[in-house]
Amino acid sequence: MRLGDILLEKKLLTEQQLNIALNVQRITGQVLGKCLISLGFLTSSELAEVLAIQHGLDYINIREYPIEIELLKIFPKSITESARFLPIEEKDGFINIAVTEPSNVVALDKVRALTGKRAKPFLTDEEGFIDTLEKSYYFLENPTEKIIEQAINTASTTGVPPPDLFPRVVDAILAEGIRRGATDIHISINAGVISIFYRVDGILEPGYFLPRTMHTGLVSRIKILSRLDIAEQRLPQDGSFIFTFVGRKYEVRVSTIPTVEGESVVLRVLFGASEDFYSLNKLGFSESLFRSLKRLIRKPYGIIIVAGPTGSGKSTTLYALIREVNRVQRSVITIEDPVEYRISFIKQSEVNERIGYDFALAGRNFMRHDPDIILLGEIRDEETAKIAIRASITGHLVLTTLHTSDAVNSIPRLLDLGVDRFLLSSSLLAVLSQRLIRKICPSCKTSRDLNEKEKEIFALAGLHCEKVYYGTGCKICRNTGFLGRVAIGELMIVNSKIRDMIYEGASFNALTEAAKENGMIPLMIDGLKKVAEGVSTLEEVERVVG
Description:
Blueprint: H1 3-9, H2 15-28, H3 32-38, H4 44-55, H5 69-72, H6 77-83, E1 85-91, E2 94-99, H7 105-115, E3 119-123, H8 126-141, H9 144-158, H10 166-180, E4 184-190, E5 193-200, E6 203-211, H11 215-225, E7 237-245, E8 248-257, E9 264-270, H12 287-296, E10 302-307, H13 314-323, E11 332-336, E12 347-350, H14 359-366, E13 373-376, H15 382-392, E14 397-402, H16 410-416, H17 421-427, E15 428-440, E16 445-449, H18 452-460, E17 467-471, E18 482-493, H19 496-504, H20 508-517, H21 523-532, H22 538-545
Parallel strand pairs: 2-3, 10-14, 10-15, 11-12, 11-13, 13-14
Antiparallel strand pairs: 1-2, 4-5, 4-9, 5-6, 7-8, 8-9, 15-18, 16-17
Helix pairs in contact: 9-10, 10-11, 14-15, 17-19, 19-20, 21-22
């Protein structure tokens, strides 16, 4: 069965999209799969999963799988790169390898020649393979622990660390953050030493500790990179710089604040524009919420808001919603800060506040560009809020985000920003409030019976749960018991009753009850359902939702 036919059968592609891809293929000469990825009709991982099914192989997400360093030492990079494979682990007498081509006979031969053992191939996606291969060999040759240890020894020996020490240490700290998938890196002084912590999956985890004598040089190096004033240590400063690592660029946003122990620095790592973004059904939302979102994105006009704190996956959800749109028939234009995913058949624009190009300015001009859908990255102020509402009542579908604690709180927040009550009630379609909770690692997942307190919690929520699950910790999840995150959400769909209540100035509690009557499932209940399904733990849901 041909690839195009399989994709059509699985409804990953429409006839129209396939015809466009075939026309583009005739011009570019690309293979069909790569053409579909470049057009944004398919992600790299989705293509690999389909190819795995087509050829009877198992698919593996190589990004989430730890590569055994000792095994990697057997295979020189020149061989794995040319033969297009990556050794994962030795198991049951086989060498498990990741490949991007289903019929990669060369890789099987290379494994037998170098180890004398047979290889078992797992199919992975091209983008993940290249990224993991480059990172794996980089850290094999430049282990972070060794660089940190050398820096500690040098600082201890010399007393005053030499200036040429800091560029390498800062690069190592950032590279380690990227390897861990950290969103933020915290550098501060605690107990007389520099402590470096990484925020991974929403949790701060300890990284490395350095002598206090390195603090001034470390902070100065970061300030130089982000064009901040190295002499100013009394006031907070903000800046940014581009960090290039194994051929990929990452934007690093820097925040410094003065503390009684010395300056504290937080580095926010933005993982840059990618072509591989999630589809809506893979975010983890419940089936009913997923179906509701699919109906909402087909509306011709109005405003849909995704709410939540920083790092709750709002932008990812917006992109997933855009994937549900027929981008060939509907004109989509975006203003983002920054552009996180690149999507074909969408006009994407990026905020540049240095020249005054912000959300408000873009929003004012977008309506003259004949859009059907406007993605406005974030409502930050009164002007942006009013522009979003105005666009939604003049025949455009507006998708945007807002920083609020829950779905209903978005209404008083918008009113507080100066949005007219009548315009808000007539334009608002829905508010999705969401959070990300960590998933139990499937490799070390186990179960136990509920205790009395847990039974009471589920009974009060009206849910049935026989066992709860947790992870014991293993090498796959770095002994955390968790691997990856999944979204939970509460969706307030605005019906005629809620519209009238918004216009009449109803209280928060009254709006919440009306939203529940209209089918809104609160965040905590949605989280508890994930616990009952064995996806996450009660402690994790309580930590995130409160």
